[in-house]
Amino acid sequence: MAQEAFPEHEGQVVHGLTKRVLIVHYHEIWLKGGNKKFFLSRLIAAVKRSLAGLASQPLEHVADRLLVAVPDESLLPVMVGRLQRVFGIAYIGIASEVPCGMPEIAACACHIMGQKNPRSFAVRAKIADAACGLHSMGLERELGHEILTFLRSKGSDVRVNLEDPEVTCWVEVIPGKALVYAERAEGAGGLPAATGGRLVMLLSGGFDSGVAAYKMMRRSAHLIFVHFYGSTSASRGSSKPVAERIVRTLTPYQYTSRLYLIPFDSVQRQIVAGARESLRVLLYRRMMARIGREICQVERGLGLVTGDSVSQVASQTLHNLAAVDQGIELPIYRPLAGDDKEEILRLARRIGTYTISCEPFEDCCPRFMPRSPAIFSNPEELGAAEKGLDIEGLVTEGLEGAQVMDFKYESGQIEVCEGTPHRFEKLVQHRKALRAGIPQPPAPVVKP
Q1: Is 93 exposed, middle or buried (0-12, 13-18, 19+ CB in 10 A)?
Q2: What are 259-278's pLDDT values in tens digits?
Q3: Which residues is 160 bridged to in the sheet?
Q4: Could you say which DSSP state residue 442 is in?
Q5: Is 90 exceeded by the pLDDT of residue 218?
Q6: DSSP string covering 258-279, please?
Q7: Predicted pLDDT at 447
Q8: What pTM was computed for the model?
Q9: CB 407 within 8 A of CB 247
Q10: Topology of 198-435 in CATH?
Q11: Which own/partner pairs from 153-159 qualify as long-range (CB within 8 Å, at least 24 positions apart)?
Q12: Residue 144: enclosing H or E segment and its boundaries?
């Protein structure tokens, strides 16, 4: 490959002959003080896992950056795409590595900016090597002059704009080398996956719960998913495939997922037959929370997550949320509580769940919808409405019919297998025996 020559830099190292590298800058780990080492180790493990099969050289940790060598330019889009799903990353710089000298840096920067051909630009430098003899402001001024001279020699009317440049040329000087780039990809932010404990996500097929799941995973929670489905109609199919696709889409963010599919049609019909019409949806939701609580205990979870947005629908008023929560005895997290629908849809589009939730499916909650649902219920009212129901029997019935699917993300692929966890089988057997009137020792307490 021929080396391209530049005015004032002929014979120097240029972009086409330099080593390509991805610079991974992390996010909130900066704030973790004495716990930084733990979170950083989990981030490094996540980056390695995400790039499995792509990155052939070891990951470097230099001056609070992670450096990933790009073995082949054709792999660059795939590598960046995978890294953008790693929680804890602020952004990824798509850089060229050059020797730490002004001629080499200038040659590389001029080549990169020549390809961009901007109408305005700025130079931003970070010096993480005091021994290099360079200073950030001096480097920015000198490099800016070199780029300006080079671009104008090509006939461009480019100008320097430090406030709002069309293109920024970043230079990061670290021990032994300099990294030059004008392109970077935003990361997912947040904290490394699965560093904050387990939660159980009550997942519908709609827009809200998929976004709620993403937001909790971004805050380091590892989610177990529970989806309730009913019978299908002539115009709409089952919600099960929709839930499976949402979990498949979200799994690359946390690497492994488990999905419990709970048949809910029979439970709903018994609630409809035995309770007041205006309270039906609230009783559905309370029953879902009870079943979710049992799964949470089996999975050693620390609480439940829902996609509720305050007052978006009748069942999500503050009065109704408080009434449904009464007696669940687990924390219930609602990461969308203060979000409006447009905010939720915008994030759903970004994470890839929007088109899935747009598909027609039969959602169980709107079935047998009351003509005038209650909006100001209270726990006592719901308790009175449930007196005619076999609550424990309904919970057991839901658990008995569960289908369990495990998802695993590895080397860019999702593997799915079915199988019921042993602890869950023991729970169902215990509850069935109690329902049949067979004396049983107390169920073991599963500690998180």
Answers
A1: buried
A2: 999 999 999 999 999 889 99
A3: 121
A4: P
A5: yes
A6: EEEEEE-HHHHHHHHHHS-GGG
A7: 58
A8: 0.90
A9: yes
A10: Rossmann fold (3.40.50)
A11: 153/7, 154/114, 156/117, 157/119, 158/118, 158/119, 158/120, 158/121, 159/119, 159/120
A12: helix 136-153
